[in-house]
Amino acid sequence: MLELLIVILAFLGMEFTAWAAHKYVMHGFLWWLHEDHHVLTGKPYQKNDYFALIFATPSALGFIFGSIYNSSLLIAFGLGILLYGLAYLFVHDIFIHRRKKMFKKPNNKYLKGILFAHRIHHSKSTKNNCEYFGMLFVPKVIFRLMKNG
After folding, report:
1. Contact yes or no for 52/85 (Cβ under 8 A)
2. What is the largest CA-CA distance in the chain?
3. Which sequence spans correspond to the domains of the chain?
């Protein structure tokens, strides 16, 4: 039961971690890696894709050290991060950016909110003055903006 709690907390913690890394690292000192994500290049891969490897590292370490030390808690931690990475793949890369054409336009208010917030974020092609750095959490203001605009 504790392992399931750790998986859930690691997954939820990754939303905050990804938000902070996106705002302060990707739109900060590693902008040179993230910049091509804000510009349509037409390329199937971007320098920004290296962040998947960076975020996969703590997950892999959880599995590695969990196996070495026979720790189900470390494995659960690695699994939570892995599941967030899979959510990122499906929500951000496939659903939002349509890197693979798998999903139709949503009819769901929450999913529309995810798309709208991301569209606002990408309305700027510079590292400064961007908003809405998260992926799964949609601020209430987004739903008000969608209703009014």
Report:
1. yes
2. 55
3. 2-148
